[in-house]
Amino acid sequence: MVDNASSDESAAIAERMADQHDSVRLIRSPTNRGYAGAVNLALPEVRGEYLAVLNMDVVVSPGWLPPLVSFLEATPDAGVACPLILLESDPGRINAAGQNLNKTGLGFNRWLGKPRERAGEAPFEVTGLHGAAFLIRRELLERLGGWNEDGFLYFEDVELSWLLRIAGQDVWCVPASTVTHDYHLTMFPHKLFLLERNRRKMLLADLRGRTRLALSPLLALSELMMWGYCLLRGPKFLRAKARSYGWVRANRTQIRARREQIDSVRRRSDWEVLRGLRWGYPLDQFLTLGRERGKSQRDRIA
């Protein structure tokens, strides 16, 4: 189990789990390398079949881990099992039941703000994992070469989700397992820069040129919407969006190397990967971000 410098309460629960179960080993990693860096630091130390990842602002519920392990043991085609993530501020509502991935590379929390009952009790397949909490097969993550750290800090889970789909692995949400997450939907310039540079990098590395050409009308619409949002938020956001293009141009060699690595584990074609991903956007989340004004309370990178 990787604990990304978790909160005191979550760390205490994790420590008790490690004390009570011989098969559970708690490995703490620093936050300054992001989710992926923390997991990669821990991966060589893992001896079990599974690796559980927890973000620093997640608090686990007692008994959250066994349902995830049981599901993966019973479902060989599943590579990742995600708990149902509830809002710490209102545990009766959902923060994320996995993610909904869009064909343009965007990722959105599935059922954000919906009543907990919406998820039911039976496991269901999702297009993407949420990086705050999930369980992955150790052998699978090793085969993928670890978790790509280039996505630091706000896109790593989307990129891993795409890679899992490329490698022919499925992601499931298991509502019998729950955690709570201190979450607030917000945007600030540096976060937007990281999201946009990493999204563009992922599309260039993960999709063939002819696929991107076929998707070009949708990609152009996405760009237009993003520029409109930046115009609404002001000069700092406009500069952040522009910087994302410059970063991609300056890192073409890195992107080519990433493309070669992805091709080495590819089991699905582009169209098989894109099948099932969303065409539309969650307007409620867009409206929440669009109404945000002034400086975000979380305008920082830890």
Radius of gyration: 19 Å
Figure out the total of helices: 12
Uncertain segments: 3-7, 16-21
How many strands?
A: 11
Elements, N to C (H/E)? EHEHEEHEEEEEEHHEHHHHHHH
- Oligomerization: single chain
Short description:
The chain has 302 residues and is α/β, with parallel strands linked by helices.
Q: What does the secondary structure layout of this molecule look like, with pairings?
A:
Layout lengths: L1 E2 L4 H13 L6 E2 L5 H9 L7 E5 L3 E3 L4 H10 L3 E10 L2 E7 L2 E3 L5 E3 L14 E3 L6 E5 H6 L12 H11 L3 E12 L7 H18 L2 H6 L1 H18 L1 H16 L1 H14 L4 H5 L8 H9 L11
Parallel strand pairs: 1-2, 1-3, 5-11
Antiparallel strand pairs: 3-10, 4-11, 5-6, 5-10, 7-8, 9-11
Description of the molecule:
With 302 residues, the protein is α/β, with parallel strands linked by helices. 45% of the residues lie in helices and 18% in strands. It has twelve helices and eleven strands. The strands form two sheets. Strands 1, 2, 3, 4, 5, 6, 9, 10 and 11 form a nine-stranded mixed β-sheet that branches. Helix 6 runs parallel beside helix 9 and helix 8 packs across helix 9. The longest helix has 18 residues. It is globular, with a radius of gyration of 19 Å. The two termini are 22 Å apart. The N terminus is likely disordered.
